[in-house]
Amino acid sequence: MSVVRLFLVDDHKMIRDGLKSYFDDDEELMVVGEAVNGQQALGKLEEMEIDVLLTDLIMPGMDGMELIKILKERNHPCKIIALTMQSEPRHIKRVLSCGVDGYLLKTSGEREVRKAIREVSNGSHYYSPEVTGIIMDALSSTTKKWDRVTHEVPLTSREKEVLNLIVKEFTNGEIAEELFISVRTVDAHKRNLMEKTGSKNVAGLVLYAIEKELFDDIR
């Protein structure tokens, strides 16, 4: 059984200690390092291998956004989850556009934190239900707030089925089971969807589906 190696970045020791307590008796999730800001995190990550990084966004020195951008530019293999109190649509959009694998609010409980880590470590994405609701509310009121312009592109019936399940927050495994296809095939469809729609990540696919009103149950 492989252990998911976690790295925590938050300037508040109480937050880091609280998170570490979630995994004290967990044989599958283990905190291997921590830092008080992005700069310290980058220094430590040069000397260790991790699987998932949980980072706050607002910190003294190098903040979480800058840390995320640098890790993406360096093609660091770790999955990244933003763990923050920021729930305003403009902040959410800015973070998702950087390609994070998850977005958790600090109001999330232990069970949700564990679920998010496991899903992103398995190649899926995870966004707190509150975050998904905020995105959809903002888009339903006006798409202009997002300054996003997309063009209609032809999708195959299978691609639409996969996209519909992505919007409904199905994991890769759940999509595969629902459509009787392999997880590898799901990954291929996701890549094709992102290429066709010009989306950088799963959040972009959700925004595309909502803007184009592709599915009646998400209008």
Kindly describe this structure.
Helix content is 48%, strand content 13%. With 219 residues, it is an alpha/beta fold. It folds into two domains: 4-137, Response regulator (Rossmann fold), CATH 3.40.50; 148-218, Arc Repressor Mutant, subunit A, CATH 1.10.10.10. α8 crosses α9 and α9 (183-197) crosses α10. The longest helix has 15 residues, at 183-197. The radius of gyration is 17 Å and the shape is globular. The model is unreliable at 142-149 (pLDDT under 50).
List the helices and strands and how they pair.
Elements: E1 4-9, H1 13-22, E2 29-35, H2 38-45, E3 52-55, H3 64-73, E4 79-84, H4 89-96, E5 102-105, H5 110-121, E6 126-127, H6 129-141, H7 157-167, H8 172-179, H9 183-197, H10 202-211
Parallel strand pairs: 1-2, 1-3, 3-4, 4-5, 5-6
Q: Which characteristics define this entry?
A:
219 residues; alpha/beta; Rossmann fold; 10 helices; globular
The first-to-last residue Cα distance is 42 Å
Report the average pLDDT across residues.
Answer: 85
The domain count comes to 2
User: Quick one: overall form?
Assistant: globular
Query: Within the CATH hierarchy, at the fold level, what is the topology of the largest domain?
Result: Rossmann fold
Radius of gyration: 17 Å
Kindly report the name of the CATH homologous superfamily of the largest domain.
Response regulator
Helix content: 40-55%
Counted beta strands:
6
Uncertain residue segments: 142-149
Physical arrangement of strands within the biggest beta sheet: 2-1-3-4-5-6
Binned strand content: 5-15%
Please give the largest β-sheet.
6 strands, parallel
Class of secondary structure makeup: alpha/beta
The SSE order reads: EHEHEHEHEHEHHHHH
